[in-house]
Amino acid sequence: MSRGRDPLVLGQIVGDVLDPFTRSATMRIMYNNREISNGSRLRQSAVADKPQVQIEGNDPRKLYTLVMVDPDAPSPNNPTDREYLHWLVTDIPETLDASHGNEIVSYESPRPQAGIHRIALVLFRQQVQQTVHAPGWRQNFSTRDFSAFHNLGLPAAATFFNCQRETGCGGRR
């Protein structure tokens, strides 16, 4: 897919959260039996429980790290908590889902209070199994810095969805 039509570029996930990358893995994300694709729109109630995140492939010796962040916290027009860390799972074997990994930071469902928030799920291929410690806070997490510190390199896959509160309407303000 050309960079001009890439939904991650159009949604500014590439730029705000990630550097440009070439997808090298396939990840399927399901909330309540609904598969999520780039730009899907979900209300808070639909994301209350952690999603099923499946990594497709055929080599369970390959391990992955999953990072879920909100680059629009607390509001899209004033993202002072960018990036808010919602979930961090390491050592996820290819062919299985995130429930088989090591949950470093427990899932916290997105609860946007203002505007429509982009929620990014980013998958990194691990070179080795390693110890990862939970950061001391969720706000102002940096996916790029995390990747660099743990030598994860560029993402293997990423997807984002849009989330807003139950009674929300309007745009990304």
Helix and strand run: HHEEEEEEEEHE
Rounded to an integer in angstroms, the radius of gyration calculated over CA atoms is 15 Å
- Would you report the number of β strands? 9
Number of helices: 3
Strand content: 25-35%
CATH topology: Phosphatidylethanolamine-binding Protein
Biggest sheet statistics = 6 strands, mixed
Shape: globular
Structural class: mainly beta
Q: What is the CATH homology-level superfamily?
A: PEBP-like
Under the CATH scheme, which class?
Alpha Beta
Average pLDDT, rounded to a whole number, is: 93
Q: Please give the domain count.
A: 1
> Considering DSSP H and I runs of 4 or more, what fraction of the residues is helical?
under 10%
* Major β-sheet strand ordering: 3-9-8-5-6-7
Q: Tell me what the CATH architecture is.
A: Alpha-Beta Complex
* Low-confidence runs of at least 5 consecutive residues: none
The rounded distance between the terminal residues' Cα atoms is: 29 Å
Structure description:
By secondary structure, the chain is mainly beta. The protein is 9% helix and 34% strand. It is built from three helices and nine strands, in the order H-H-E-E-E-E-E-E-E-E-H-E. The longest helix has 7 residues, at 143-149. The protein starts with 6 loop residues before the first helix and ends in a 9-residue tail after the last strand. The mean pLDDT is 93.
Q: How do you describe this structure in short?
A:
Belongs to the phosphatidylethanolamine-binding protein family. With 173 residues, this protein is mainly beta. Helix content is 9%, strand content 34%.
